[in-house]
Amino acid sequence: MKKSILFNTFVTTVFLVICNQASGVTGAELICTGNPIDMVFILDSSKSIIYMDFNRQLEFVSFIVNHSDIGLGPKQVRVGVITFGDKAVTKINLKESVNKKVLNEKINKINQAPGGGNAADALNKMRNVMFQREQGARSGVKRVAIILTNGYSTDPVATRKEAKACRDEHIEIFAVGIGKIILFSDLYFIVSKPSIEFVYMAPNNKTLKNIRKKVAQLACNKGGC
User: Fold this and answer.
1) CA separation, residue 54 to residues 34, 47, 108, 111, 197 (Å)
2) 40 burial level (CB within 10 Å; 0-12, 13-18, 19+)
3) Is residue 216 a contact partner of residue 65, using CB atoms and an 8 Å limit?
4) CA 126 to CA 199: how far, in whole Å?
5) pLDDT at 13 over 80
6) Residue 206: exposed, middle, or buried by beta-carbon count in 10 A (0-12, 13-18, 19+)?
7) pLDDT tens across 92-132, in order?
């Protein structure tokens, strides 16, 4: 009788593990949970970003995905990804946020396509395409943008203009400076206000790992633009 109970318990445990893995559930502590958020990551794919730093951007996105309640439910977090070089390219739409497993598989397939630093086009595409209902965006839900870049834009004036248009539509913008050479001034001009609370510097991998939890906490809980 005891053996039968133990066997049934074992089978049930294995079944739950398999189900959790299939749905993308991980043992990571949830940082973004309880409140619906539409979150878009803008990744710098330009030639000024070395290959290693581009991969670190992907790791950063995966960290926040793994610590968020990802799904298409009304109170869950949806994630989208845009990369930019000569132009902006949509890699993942918000409506593709089925679960963590699906998102991480898509993130791992994102490749760097070096070119110019057209951050203005990325911000424009995020506002006019990504944050639209057709792509999975929701009305009345907090909208967050996290841009990872070294700050070097091909057209700083256009970038600042597009960033302001995003902020005017109540999109909260965070910036994470990537790499050893970061143009601080442009980052401070594009983020939400007060700028000092929305800009973080990550000149190396250790620093990036140290700040990612804090950025996630602020992005998921902070209010205002």
Assistant:
1) 30, 10, 12, 9, 24
2) buried
3) no
4) 19
5) no
6) exposed
7) 999 999 999 999 999 999 999 889 999 999 999 999 999 99
Q: 162 versus 204: which is more confidently predicted?
A: 162
CA atoms of 153 and 196, how far apart (whole Å) = 20
Tokens 């909260």: give the residue. 172
Instruction: Quote the pLDDT of residue 157.
Output: 95
> How far, in Å, are 111, 132, 191, 200, 210 from residue 58 at the CA level?
10, 24, 21, 17, 16
**Domains located in the chain, CATH noted:** 30-221 (3.40.50.410)
What element of type H or E holds 43?
A: strand 37-44
Q: For tokens 């791992």, what's the residue?
A: 108
| CB burial of residue 141 (10 Å; 0-12, 13-18, 19+) | middle
Radius of gyration of the chain (CA): 19
Per-residue b or e along 158-197, where b marks 16 or more CB atoms closer than 10 Å to that residue's CB: bbbebbeebbeeebbbbbbbbbeebbeebbbbbbbeeeee
pTM of the entire predicted model: 0.86
Instruction: Please provide the average confidence, as pLDDT, over all residues in the chain.
Output: 87
Encoding tokens for residue 126?
Answer: 């995020």
Residue in the structure block whose two tokens are 């999975």 = 136
Based on DSSP, count helices (H) and strands (E) in the chain, helices before strands: 7, 6
